[in-house]
Amino acid sequence: MTKSRVFWAVVAPTAAIFTSLLFTYIILKIRGVDPIEMFRLMISYGFDPRNLVSELNQTVAYYMAGVAAAIGFKMLLFNIGIDGQYRMGAFFGAVVGAAVSLPPILHVLVIILTAMLAGGAWAAIAGYLKVRRGVSEVISNIMLNFIAAALIAFLLSPSIFGILPEGTQVLQTRSIPASGRMPTIKAFDGEIYTFLFLAIFVGVSYWIMLNKTVFGFNLRATGLSFRAARSSGVNAPGMIFVTTVLSGAIAGLVGIGTLLSDTHNYSMAFPSGYAFTGLALALLGRNHPVGIFFAAFLWSFLERTAPVLEFEGVPPEIIIVLQGTIVLSIVVAYELVSRINLRQQQRAVGSVSAEVIDKDSKSVKETK
Amino acid sequence: MNVLEISGVEKKYPGVVANQDVSLQVRQASIHAIIGENGAGKSTLMKILYGLIKPDAGSIRAFGNEVNLKSPQDAIALGIGMVHQHFKLADNATVLENVILGSEPTRFGFLVKYDEAREKLKEISKNYGLEIDPDESLANLGVGERQRVEIAKVLFRGAKILILDEPTAVLVPQEVAELFANLRELVKKGLTILFISHKLDEVLSIADDITIMRRGKTVASRKPSNTSKKELAELMVGGELPKPKVGAAKISSSSILNIKEASYSRLDKREILNKVNLELHGGEILGLAGVEGNGQSELVELIMGLIQPSSGSVEILGMNVASHLTKDIRNAGVAYIPQDRQRDGLLMTAPLWENRILGHQFNSPMAKSIWVNKSAAVEGSKSIVAEFDVRTPGISVLASALSGGNQQKFIVGRELSGDPKIIVAAQPTRGVDVGAQAIIWDHLVQARSKGAGILLVSADLEELFSLSDRIAVIYNGSIVSILNPRETSPEQLGLAMTGASKS
Amino acid sequence: MKSTDTKSTNKLAMRAKVFFRSPARITLFIAGIFFIISFVELLTGATDISSPGTSGATLRLATPLLMAGIGGLWAERAGVINIGLEGMMIVGTWTAAWFGYLHGPYVGILAAAVFGLASGLFHAILTVKIGIDQAVSGLAINLIAAGAARYLSGIFFPPVGGDRTVSPPVESMPKFSIPFVAPFFKSIDEKEIFLVSNVSGLIYGVTTDLSVMTVALLLLVPLTSWILWRSKFGLRMRFCGENPMAAESLGINVYRTRYIAISISGMFASLGGAYLAIVASSVYREGQTGGRGFIGLATVIFGNWRPSGVFAGSILFGFTDALRLRQSESVMALIMIVGIASLLLAIFYSVSRNWRLGGTYFGMALFALWVNQRVEVIPQEFVTAFPYFATLIVLTLLAQRLTPPAMVGLPFKRGSE
Lengths: 368, 503, 417
Fold this sequence. Notes:
The structure holds three protein chains of three kinds. Chain A is mainly alpha-helical. Chain A has 15 helices and four strands. Chain A has helices spanning 2-30, 35-46, 49-74, 82-99, 104-133, 137-155, 195-212, 214-224, 226-231, 236-251, 256-263, 274-284, 289-311, 318-349, 354-357, and strands spanning 162-163, 172-173, 184-187, 190-193. In chain A, strands 1-2 form a two-stranded antiparallel sheet. Chain A has a two-stranded antiparallel ribbon with strand order 3-4. Chain A is globular, with a radius of gyration of 23 Å. Chain B is an alpha/beta fold. Helices cover 33% and strands 26% of the residues of chain B. In chain B, the strands form six sheets. In chain B, strands 6-9-10-3-11-12 form a six-stranded mixed β-sheet, sandwiched between helices.
């Protein structure tokens, strides 16, 4: 029984990635480019140590987004608000980090906590609306994403939190002093964020929380069956709210690696698009911390090596299409697989209408 | 003339005989009631008549001709219309739109002739006394009015025979009277009504003919003039009642569950429970009998703290349900075997050992402070599987892989572990084979002898009579009588269950 | 779970509904607003609010929003949320620009419509037939459309005079002014009579320099209303969104109806994009859509799922967008207008002893006064975020009174009970 489950669990993502690669193969062929050569180039470029480093750093950010999304998914919540939550976290982390002066480790901790708080608080708005007013978290989060961007853009204006240092065109927050910075590991001509370890820690904690604690059990139960969880004594609506906030808090950490080890301030140069990426990675990685990590790496790899395509006259944006196709294929594959499974199960148990069975039990014989 | 002649209809499912040798004659322009308790086969028969199910044997003649109904469309074409128990209406639309959907009169096949449809609906409403306003938004209508819209739906499509499935289940007495007035209007105009119910009072007041079904068969036909409530009740329930199997109980004097004048109304103001009074003592099995839909599910949810009473109080193990969470109630030692095992009792897509934790995750042994105790859960699952003979390949399979009966056995095993003080069991042996049923009954009796108080809600009379020390009967949201299973006659029980007596 | 403040907000909304329903009152209300506008314009010298320039710009900015909103409406009324509106709009901008460059603007619009239908159908098959999550499908479409647009731009545009982010220019469509009407109102506007000229100026703005496409697209709105409430298809489609099980029980093919509705949804979004590329500008530009697809989603909610509401929302959001691009004092003047209007409403409701509403509006008036005194300039970003903020407020305060299609966003499988 478990063997076939593992089989189906792996077959879906593999089939999906294969389909997407096939699709890209065809597109490249149409452009008159040799796809195999392209792939070879991408792989050699992507695994070149210098690029590996920046890929790893990007992986850290993507990984956080993926874990944040996964927490939501376990509760059947679609946290598309990761974009806004991440910005809130990075921005307020930067502002508070620059405003205080504390001993080194404490300083960093304060920044991290601020980021989580900001992200969580922003997510709480959507959570409240969902639990108290029944508003879809997808819609409210989309609105909140835009509002967050606008709010932060406003707060970055020179009269408030923004400064415009010499030689730059981009408004940014004040620099975080040395005590609030995380060191990097110098490797292969590059610098790996030490936040990577924290990210791994978050991932592992997520897994432990979800599978070993009572809280995690309640979370999963509410996602698997709202009614069963409720009957078992779980405060299901409360669970939804807490999960939303937790997901937002993790999302707040998405930009912290960059903040603490690289830029040391927040500016509008911080990229967007983490919401969809996070959701995609959680889907690809099946909400598993290891799976999400590999998916995050795959994503960073693809993005880092995309420019290679340009040398052959292929606009690198095809990678974006590839990413979108991968996500769609995976989701479609999961859906089809679960349908096949369901049909198999029904055939095994024999579909008898439930209402017929609630009869005089004397004449009911169980058939297997 | 008979508009419907049904003879020898049979429908079997694996392991269940839903209809056997069912025969029935329905006269034109009459109200023909079909009565029987849960599981008598009424619903199956109606679905066959409406073309939703194909019978395995037998013949159906409608308006004098042999018919073969393959789908509801066939039935509608013949003039048979079904008014469902669960309305299929859209709130955010008008009455007119709801009625004509799917059968719209059109101009050029594209534009809806609303004026024409409106006139037709107004006429139907006037002719049959339905009093519905075509342009009223459905959201503003009460339950009785919605039912009339459903009736209008079938009349709009030219129905001559109307099947009503437990129509009064959702109505308050005022609305019942209005419905009956409407039905008499319809009959005056030559229509025929098939009326499924279990409420004898209503049936005797409205029906022209009565057919009684029991255990999938049509057992008798009567007219209201030549029968009595007693006779009908007896026919419904059967000649003899099962004998109790348990010995005398050691019932403690203190009540561990005390429901005082508890009422519960839903959002739409309908009162589901009306001043319920019930007491459960330690060491006894209190059965709760009643046809489904009379408030049992809500009473159970009330006791478990899932809903709150609108008035009155529920006290369980000294705690007032209104100020305690379900979690606290369970932690205090209340076990719950829910009626809908798949939706309320199990995490279907989780492995069996995780399901052992469900409902017990706030206390040891399933939890150690904030940590889940997996080894205890695994051990516990294994012992349940052994003790209750749960047929499963292992404890890591998903709950959905087990058959219904084995799922139920597991749930019962889980709930009875840990020596609960109160067991709330709703339909605990539904869908379970005879052997498993015996095991479950055995364990329930064991729990009772250990001093637990059990509330046994069941539609299975044998179960109730075999196990209960006392049987309370619920009808229309109130406890109408409390019977001694050793001294109750079928009539008494039937009358109580159909609201005909108060004792 | 329901908090007690729902009662007051219910009353607020209910009152607003009743108030707005009678035609006489509506006219009075609109007249009052114009009076206030004219008064404030006189006072502050911010003549831009009712100027022809602003009204014309409002119309131009509102049209793509309107198309996105109507697109969202078509999908949601049938029961499916279309988060991919932004992507479908991008499809429209790109195809209209490219095919418009090759064969002229009319072909460009046609191409946009066709590709819009296709992308809508794609979304429909994914969500209805295969049954994947509607939000995932929409998001994926957004991503794929954006990537594909950039990819194809990089391939097709550079050789013919564009570059990877901008297409070669497209011929524009003819513009016209409504004869007799436009000059008439222009003359009154020039006379600068209080109130009358302001109104005339506004009307002049929307009757001159009209693109044929604007008019055509605007006509699609009453057409949508007509189809949804007068036709057989429209009735059945609405039930697919309200109660697909009921529809199915009456013999309606829910899947097929949804395919059609969602394809049309894509078409509308795409046409909105085409408008951006052909009328609002004359090229495709990367990032041209700027989130309008999502604003469209917002207007559906804001407009309570009615075409007239979506229209009103689009005009409102187009208006604030137009103001942002023009004089900044206009925004301040707008705040003053809102403040004065609130004050008057507060007086009105206090007189009729409705203290709750009176108090609420008085609070709004005070807030407007505070903003007026303390804030020099409304930051650009706030004006940009206004549609989203307004929708969020509506969702928070009026969630109970909104009437979305009952089953929108919920999965439906054929044959389910």
